[in-house]
Amino acid sequence: MHWEKKLLKNLNYRIPLLTACLIIIGFIAVSSAGSASLTGGYMSYLRTQIAASVLGIMLLILIIFMDYRIFKEYDIFIYAGIIFLLSFLLIVGTTVGGGTRWLTIGPVSFQPSEVAKIFMILFLAAYLDRNSNQLDNIKGLLKSLAFVLPPFFLIVLQNDLGTALVLMFIFVAMFYLAGGRVRDILIVFGGVGLIFFLLITFHLALGTPLPFLRPYQLNRLIAFVNPGIDPRGIGYNIIQARIAVGSGMLTGRGFMAGTQSQLGFLPERHTDFIFAVISEEFGFIGVAVVLGLYFLLIWQFIKVMCQAKDRFGFLIVTGVAAMFFFHVLENVGMTLGIMPITGITLPFISYGGSSLVTSLVAIGLALNVNMRRKKIVF
After folding, report:
1. pLDDT exceeding 90 applies to what percent of the chain?
2. pLDDT confidence of 37, banded at 50, 70, 90?
3. In the chain, domain spans
4. What is the pLDDT of residue 89?
5. Does 107 or 304 have the greater pLDDT score?
6. What is the β-pairing status of strands 94-96 and 99-105?
7. Tell me: the pLDDT tens digits for 173-193?
């Protein structure tokens, strides 16, 4: 008991406090988004969200009292678990909306790709820590990237490009802060980006095959560049989201009073475009509060990183911070029309049990490192 009290004295209470604020905002936003025409009404969505938060908090508490260094001893098993889970999903997973993303066990359904993000953070932290003296060249980058590509492509095969991109962003952030060189990252990923751009250009101009993108994914890229090309089709989501954001103005239309969301014009308003609901109903002030909370949360992660006892803990929190940063950047960006639509959730706020539980587990990992902190110099 004395040991547990000593650990709790080191706890950064700002992190759970900021997390709680975001979860409460999520309850409010999901209630509003589900109050109109969504099946079952807002209470069914709210109950699911509350149940997921309770489960996530239980897992968070369990995780903070496990020494995070134990994960380093089982990194190979963690990686094997990722590959098995994602491969198993493609065989027996439930297909919803054209994507095989859900694994159903009895009455419970969850997204293994969400679990994969946490597992990859733990594995990469262990791998990059052990090989920190081999990362300052392209060979080290390619060797590290080889471990990321199998789960990346397995998630792409589930038609979940958004989560695959999150995984890649986590890797880039962790690799760089583990000692990788910016030049190597730019050469490799810049080259891949150029090839990707040329393939899409040739496909649109000459009709050449484009096997790595589904038609709807290509349409999302086209709509991102010019949503007005098909305002009732591929550009509809972006246009309606922009209207919702703009109509909120300074103070918003009020709780459950947004016309875009309440009248059903805004698509996927309880998940992908929950930020548009907040913008319309609570205006610029509400948006500023939400973004301010995310900024403060990521800032606390940076403080935990700087105080970490070892490189392994430092890299774990780096991965957690990168995951949240990319989710917020992409979700808000696609709502505003400055990023392509990928279906990425807004952490703690978007409806979705798997996303909420995963986010709380990630918070637990960051708090775990924080509670065992001892400032070191890298």
Report:
1. 51
2. low
3. 24-180+214-371
4. 85
5. 304
6. antiparallel
7. 999 999 999 999 999 999 988
Q: Which residues pair with 103 in a beta bridge?
A: 110
For residue 293, the surrounding DSSP H or E stretch is helix 274-306
Our CA dihedral for 56, 59, 61, 67, rounded to 10 degrees, sits at: -140
Would you call 105 helix, strand, or coil by DSSP? strand
Angle, alpha carbons 168-169-171 (nearest 5°): 65
Distance from C-alpha of 345 to C-alpha of 337, rounded to nearest angstrom? 15
Distance in angstroms between the alpha carbons of the first and the last residue of the chain? 33
Q: Average pLDDT, stretch 30-40? A: 69
Q: What is the pTM of this model?
A: 0.91
Name the residue with tokens 């439930």.
Answer: 94
What Å distances lie between residue 250 and 29, 254, 270, 280, 282, CA to CA? Answer: 18, 11, 22, 9, 8
Mean pLDDT of the 156-165 span: 87
Question: In the prediction, which pLDDT does 41 show?
Answer: 64
Pairing of strands 108-110, 99-105: antiparallel
- What is the rounded distance in angstroms from the CA atom of residue 132 to the CA atom of residue 178? 6
Structure tokens at 299: 């800032």
User: DSSP label at 228?
Assistant: G
Buried b (16+ CB within 10 A) or exposed e, 271-303: bbbbbbbbbbbbbeebbeebeebbeebbebbee
Across-strand partners of 109?
Answer: 104
What does the alpha-carbon distance between residue 12 and residue 205 come to, in Å, rounded to a whole number?
Answer: 54
pLDDT band at 97 (very low <50, low <70, confident <90, very high): low
DSSP H or E run through 179? none
Burial class from Cβ neighbours inside 10 Å (0-12, 13-18, 19+) for residue 195 reads exposed
Question: 102 forms bridges with which residues in the sheet?
Answer: 94
Count CB neighbours of 99 within 10 A.
Answer: 18
Phi, psi of 174 (to 5 degrees): -70, -40
Alpha helices in 252-273 (DSSP H): 259-262
Name residues whose C-beta falls within 8 Å of residue 63's C-beta, 6 or more positions apart in sequence: 361, 364, 365, 367, 368
